[in-house]
Amino acid sequence: MVSSEQRRRQLAREKYERQMERRVEARRKAKRRNAVVSAAVAAVVVIAGAGAWAGGMFDKSASKNAAPHAAPTPTAAPTPVKGCTAPAPGKPNGKQWKAEPAMSVDSGAKYTATLDTSCGKVTLELDAAKAPHTVNSFVFLAGEQYFDHTKCHRLTTSGIYVLQCGDPTGTGSGGPGYQFADENLTGATYPAGTVAMANAGPGTNGSQFFLVYKDTQLPPNYTPFGKITGGLDVLNNIAGGGENDANGPGDGAPNANVVLNSVTATKS
């Protein structure tokens, strides 16, 4: 027969084990959220090779503000969304480079980009004056057709309002093989229409970027490098289709099958 003292010790041990399990689970979740995406990745969203590159997907906090980290976003079968069509045939080329491309953009010139997505066109004005290395990388990757046929792998619809793209793996863990430093962070804000880099922490920008479709509060940690000049309606339509909540309520892969059929960038 178990004595009252033995029973007390057993209950205390069980309580301790439950506490340890909760702490391990909390650390696991924190590591997943903050292994700076997503990665995404964001990752960007952030986010190459098992989450090592800039990918930064976006993490939900108690206040529903968010920060990018590099954990992959699970994918699911897309749900048809009005205004979206089947992606153009093709697959990402998956090119990799050992180092950031040499500077070739003119920081005094204007650059524009067009994202021809399976849900409509989005046009961007790139700010080479304030983010020359970021724009240089984006223009380089666009010229290499690196973004073509890549999925926009992450959508957030609560707390922060962004669509994250630029990962050829479509998971939030991919990147171009190189990283480069942050730019244009002093006083950075993220109103609707902002284009910014997802990352996995300071100085880990790669290929993943996010498009802000509604005013969003984020710390000034993500390089803003342009603004959306057309296609906010496209982004809001994608957001209206929702996401799969794979990373928590309001955070996951978009229900729409959003694919960048092609991305072009030109000096204007």
UniProtKB/TrEMBL annotation:
Transmembrane segments: none
Pfam short name (any one): Pro_isomerase
Keyword DNA-binding: no
Record-annotated PPIase cyclophilin-type domain positions: 120-265
One example GO MF annotation: isomerase activity
Name recorded for this polypeptide: Peptidyl-prolyl cis-trans isomerase
CDD domains: cyclophilin
